[in-house]
Amino acid sequence: MQIKTMVSSEILSGYDVVSTLYPHIPSMSHWRSWEYAAYQHHQLDGRILDLGCGDGRYFRLIWPQATDVVGVDNNPGIVELGRKSGVYRNVHTVLAHNVPEPDASFDHVFANCSLEHMDRLNAVLAEIHRCLKPGGTLLCSVVTDRFIQWSLLPKLVSMAGFDDAGITLQKDFLDYHHLANPLSVEEWEKKFNRAGLLAEEHYPILPKHNSGIFLLMDSLWHVKQAGGGELGDVIFSFLSDSANFPGAFRKIFAGLLEMETDWQDCSGAVFLIRKPRW
């Protein structure tokens, strides 16, 4: 498997595009900027399966030329948004290990930050293998084990002497994201191989300093308020008051990129996986 790297200008260009979707949600625009930059090294054409499709907005941002796309999501409300988006020919409300499509009927499967949340990962990967044509590809982003290891907020709270609160924050954070598969890069590759899929390329995304700030922002965003809702509701309202925020945060983002010295040890990964032709 080839390990690929990107340069800062690619990632900041990704931010310029992605921040139009999430102008006042810095953790979202931060993470997805890295994904977007990695995806730009690939081309998806033909018939595409979007596994964990959501509302379709991010897919359309990345692949505006794609016209023959089928979505899969298990959330009925999200599926309805996906159907209304105009991105998909059809959207199935099913779990990802039970896709109601014929064998070998897709040229590509796309799974953006969805595989790590799936309880039956082996069955999902087997289903991807079944759905792909020989020679077809799976392009996906996932989190790695560093996503948990580098989580800052619970550690900082515990260091301040509030161990129980730190434990609760970490549990709530993991429950929110439902991280069923926070695997190392090596473990992800083994999972793909066992399903009969070959990992060809790996783009590490979000090295240590970017990961630390992303995880701190995301953890704070999802802290539960005593009266209901999340702190993110308050933060979003605060940031939305400034039309200058997306541009200002871009400068912070650029500074974080300058801090990185090891671009291969990361909390996320983008993989290009292929189903063999034979």
From TrEMBL:
Residues 49-140 form the Methyltransferase type domain. Transmembrane segments: none annotated. It comes from the Bacteria. SUPFAM superfamilies: S-adenosyl-L-methionine-dependent methyltransferases. It comes from Desulfosarcina alkanivorans. Signal peptide: none annotated. GO terms for molecular function: S-adenosylmethionine-dependent methyltransferase activity. This is Methyltransferase type 11 domain-containing protein. InterPro entries: Methyltransf_11, Methyltransf_Superfamily, SAM-dependent_MTases_sf.
